[in-house]
Amino acid sequence: MIRVVVVDDEPMVCAHLRTILGSADDIEVVGQAQDGAEAVEAVVRHKPRVVLMDLRMPGVDGLTAIERIAKLPEPPAVVALTTFDADTYVIRALRAGAAGFLVKSTPPEDLIGLVRVAADGHTVLSPEAAQRLVAMSADGRRRGDDARRKTEGLTERETDVLACLGEGLSNADIAARLHLAEATVKSYVSRMLVKLDCANRTQAGLLAHEAGLVKR
Predict the structure, then answer these.
(1) CA–CA separation, 66 vs 81, rounded Å?
(2) Cα separation values, 166 from 5, 81, 99, 159, Å
(3) How far from 17 is each of 81, 89, 113, CA to CA, in Å?
(4) pLDDT in tens, 147-183
């Protein structure tokens, strides 16, 4: 079962998410919270694989909660929830360690599938959304220079894999494209996350966009 915690300061939103996710045989909502402090407590208590996290909440907000959760041992995948499909606040959440983001208007059938994607350790972020978010960043030019410097130390094959992460591809898709074993791709990704000081695939994918490795 995929254990999920939902976090939103509006009880109706939490109830809606519980109803949608509860309709899936392989997903169980094990807890909910109404602010960031409660969210961290719920993660420690229930040990979910996925957290759906509202970003704007009174008290401890979602961004602070994501930062705290990312520092826990074996943290879950945190997916930021927003009412906007391109939001500068989301950029901060992704850089803090979120695995991706979803707009609250996401269709129910898509929400279930994306929770499964997050549980498998993959990016919940379309390349188009990543491009929009990077373009919105006020310090985009400086970040682009920093990203290119970071990626200079990668091998050619590592750079290819990183570009694929920027496209949101899974390990299996990357293996097929680059004619590599899936285990080899997994090894490349793990090594690159350390080299690039990225917390997860989503951060690495954003870095690929910032460095100009992803074709527009």
Answers:
(1) 12
(2) 27, 21, 13, 11
(3) 11, 22, 13
(4) 888 899 899 999 999 999 888 788 888 999 999 999 9
* All structural domains of the chain: 2-134 (3.40.50.2300), 139-211 (1.10.10.10)
All residues at 6 or more sequence positions from 114 whose CB lies less than 8 Å from its CB, including other chains: 79, 100, 102, 106, 124
Give the H or E element holding residue 3.
strand 2-7
pLDDT, tens digit, 9 for 90 and up, residues 33-83: 999 999 999 999 999 999 999 988 888 999 999 999 988 988 999 998 887
The total of other beta-carbon atoms located within 10 Å of residue 145's CB is 12
| Paired strand residues for 50 | 4, 77
